[in-house]
Design a protein that fits this description.
Strand order of the largest sheet: 7-6-4-2-1-8
Mean pLDDT: 90
Number of helices: 5
Distance between the termini: 32 Å
Largest sheet: 6 strands, mixed
Low-confidence stretches: none
Number of domains: 1
Number of strands: 8
């Protein structure tokens, strides 16, 4: 389940459950829409996130780079122990700002991940893994192989 909470200039997305390639398009679209309306701070609340795959991590990296180009920030809020472990395994533990904050208060809007077309999903997966290839370290080679396979 995905939920969005808006404050002036700030978007918080709460991920309750898995964070995978299925949720990636909805998270990216929601954040991009809010950024086009002036949001420069995106917070991804992962306290209830059971698992995160490489596509979702790459999607977050893409959002982080988009925000940085606009002098904005992306922060992971209270990631679950499993997410912290997965970030470490992918060599990403130092690429995200972390905040051990309480859950944001106020109204939450459910984000319903629509089933993307095969072409849209392929584009999201490829783009996310292209972001992961840019990260220095041994994991980049693994992600490079994924990108090369997707290009075939």
């Amino acid at each position: 389940m995905l939920y969005a909470h808006d404050e002036p200039g700030v978007l918080t997305i709460d991920v309750a459950g898995p964070a995978t390639m299925v949720e990636s398009p909805a998270v990216h679209a929601t954040a991009s829409a809010r950024m086009s309306r002036g949001v420069r701070v995106v917070r991804i609340d992962l306290r209830d996130c059971a698992i995160m795959d490489s596509t979702f991590s790459g999607t977050l990296l893409a959002l982080k780079r988009e925000l940085e180009r606009k002098d904005g920030t992306l922060t992971l809020v209270t990631p679950s122990p499993k997410v912290v472990e997965l970030l470490g395994q992918m060599g990403l533990e130092d690429f995200y700002d972390l905040d051990l904050a309480e859950r944001a208060c106020g109204p939450w809007e459910e984000i319903s991940p629509a089933t993307p077309s095969v072409e849209r999903l392929r584009s999201v997966v490829a783009g996310a893994h292209e972001e992961l290839v840019r990260i220095p370290g041994p994991a980049a080679e693994v992600f490079r192989a994924v990108v090369e396979e997707l290009r075939r």
